[in-house]
Design a protein that fits this description.
Length: 421
C-alpha cells in the first residue's frame, strides 16, 4: 500500500465517520487529486452529496448496488482513519502528492518532446502546465470563516494606512480610494494622449509621498524619461531640453531640479523588455511599493499562443503577482479606435485593446482623453489642453469623470475642480 493510497483512504474514512469535520477536505480537494480511481469516484460522490446538503456516511457511499469491492473499500477507509486529530495532515498529503505527480508527468512529457519542439517552446509548455496544476491545487482552499474575516477587518480598520499609496491627485484618490497594494490599475488612452507623461507625474507624486516606485520603461530609455521629468520640474519647454538648446542658466536650473527631487532614492527604472518572470524577479530584488508598466503591450508574452490569449494570460499573471507580492501595479494600455466612431468620444471598458481579460483582472480602469487640437499648433507658455480622466471601473470607489489640465510642452498634468458623474 503506497503513501498516496493510505492518505487518500484516510480522507475518505474521515468523510464517512465525521463529514462535518471533514468539510475542509470536501471543499479543498478535487477528485482528480486521487491516484486511486475508486477512491476518486467515492470522493466525487461525497462532494456531490455535500453540495446537495445530504448526509454522508458508509451507507450512502456504498449505495444500493451489491458491489462487494466498493463496500469493502469504504469499510477499510473508515478503519484507516482511526482519529480525526491528524485529518488535516492527510488532506495536505493528498494535495502535495498530487502536485508531485503532476509536475513529474509534465517534466517527463516535455523531456520526450524537447528535441522536436525546441527549448523555448518546451519551457513555455512546462510553465503553462505547472501554472494550471498550481491553480487547481489552490481551488477551494481559500475560504475564511465569518469570525476570522471580522477579526481581520477590525485589525485593518485600526492599522495605519501604509497599504494605500496616494497618487498625489486628490480627485483621483477620492474617486478610487488611492492606489492600494495588491491591486492593478490600468490607464488607457489612444497614442499621443499623454499616457507616459501621466505615468511620470504619478511616479513623481507617489515617490514624493514616500512610495518606492519601479518604473518599467519598455518604449524609451530612462534618459528620455528624465528629459521629460526635467521639463515637468522646471517648466522649460520639453523640445528645447530634448535638443539640449538651453541657456547656461536654464541648464543649471534643470540639473538642480532633477537632483533635488524629493523621494528620488525610491525611484528605479527598468529599461529591458520584461516578461512576467523578469517582473517577479525585479520585485523580489528591489521591494517596490508600486510597479509602473509602460506599456503592457510591449511586455514579453507566450509567443506560441494567439496574441489575444497571450495578453489575457499575462494580465492574469500580473494580477496574481500584485496580490502575492503585495505591490500596487499601474499598467499603461492602448485603446482601440472605437471611441473615434462615437459622437461623444466617451470611452467604455470594451475599448481596451488586445484582451478583454485586462478589464476583468484590473481593480481600477482609468481612461485618459484630451481635447483635440484642431489647428495643430503647439502649446506654449501657460497654455494647456483640457483633459478628462474617465474612471470606468473602481472596485473600492465610484465611477467618475475627473478634469485635468495637460501641458504637453512640460509633460505636466495638474488638477482642476472635481465632478462626479
Amino acid at each position: 500500500m503506497t503513501a498516496a493510497y493510505e492518505a487518500e483512504a484516510a480522507v475518505i474514512g474521515g468523510i464517512v465517520t465525521d463529514s462535518e469535520r471533514a468539510a475542509d477536505a470536501l471543499s479543498g480537494l478535487l477528485p482528480e487529486m486521487f491516484s486511486d480511481a475508486l477512491l476518486g469516484t467515492l470522493f466525487a460522490e461525497a462532494q456531490q452529496l455535500h453540495q446537495q446538503g445530504k448526509p454522508i456516511d458508509a451507507v450512502t457511499l456504498i449505495g444500493s448496488d451489491d458491489n462487494r469491492e466498493r463496500k469493502m473499500v469504504v469499510v477499510q477507509c473508515a478503519e484507516q482513519c482511526v482519529s480525526m486529530a491528524n485529518y488535516g495532515t492527510y488532506v495536505d498529503m493528498v494535495r502535495e502528492l498530487w502536485r508531485q505527480r503532476t509536475i513529474a508527468k509534465a517534466l517527463q512529457a516535455v523531456a520526450w518532446e524537447v528535441s522536436g519542439i525546441g527549448a523555448d517552446r518546451a519551457i513555455d509548455k512546462l510553465r503553462h502546465m505547472i501554472a494550471e496544476q498550481d491553480a487547481l491545487a489552490k481551488a477551494g482552499n481559500d475560504s475564511v470563516e465569518y469570525l476570522e474575516a471580522a477579526a481581520n477587518w477590525v485589525n485593518w480598520m485600526y492599522a495605519d494606512q501604509s497599504s494605500i499609496c496616494r497618487s498625489g491627485y486628490r480627485s483621483i484618490d477620492d474617486a478610487i480610494g488611492g492606489i492600494a497594494l495588491q491591486t492593478v490599475t490600468a490607464i488607457a488612452a489612444r497614442p499621443g494622449q499623454g499616457k507616459t507623461a501621466f505615468a511620470l507625474n504619478l511616479m513623481m507624486r507617489m515617490a514624493k509621498r514616500g512610495a518606492r516606485v519601479l518604473y518599467c520603461t519598455l518604449e524609451m530609455p530612462a534618459r528620455q524619461l528624465m528629459s521629460r521629468v526635467a521639463a515637468m520640474l522646471t517648466k522649460i519647454d520639453a523640445s528645447r531640453i530634448r535638443d539640449r538648446n538651453l541657456t547656461p542658466e536654464e541648464l543649471q536650473s534643470a540639473v538642480n531640479a532633477v537632483g533635488a527631487v524629493e523621494g528620488k532614492l525610491g525611484i528605479r527604472f527598468v529599461e529591458t523588455q520584461a516578461g512576467i518572470d523578469d517582473l517577479r524577479r525585479l520585485v523580489d530584488q528591489h521591494k517596490p511599493d508600486v510597479v509602473i508598466i509602460d506599456h503592457l503591450g510591449l511586455m514579453k508574452v507566450n509567443r506560441y499562443a494567439k496574441r489575444y490569449e497571450a495578453v489575457g494570460e499575462l494580465s492574469r499573471q500580473i494580477h496574481a503577482m500584485a496580490v502575492e507580492k503585495k505591490v500596487a501595479v499601474i499598467e499603461l494600455v492602448q485603446m482601440n479606435r472605437e471611441t473615434e466612431k462615437r459622437k461623444d468620444r466617451k470611452p467604455v471598458l470594451s475599448d481596451l485593446r488586445e484582451s478583454g481579460d485586462i478589464e476583468q483582472d484590473c481593480d481600477n480602469v482609468l481612461f485618459l482623453q484630451s481635447d483635440r487640437q484642431e489647428d495643430g499648433r503647439p502649446i506654449t507658455g501657460n497654455g494647456y489642453i483640457e483633459t478628462k480622466v474617465y474612471v470606468e471601473k473602481a472596485r473600492e470607489g465610484r465611477i467618475s469623470t475627473i478634469p485635468l489640465h495637460w501641458q504637453p510642452q512640460y509633460h505636466l498634468f495638474t488638477e482642476t475642480e472635481l465632478k462626479f458623474g
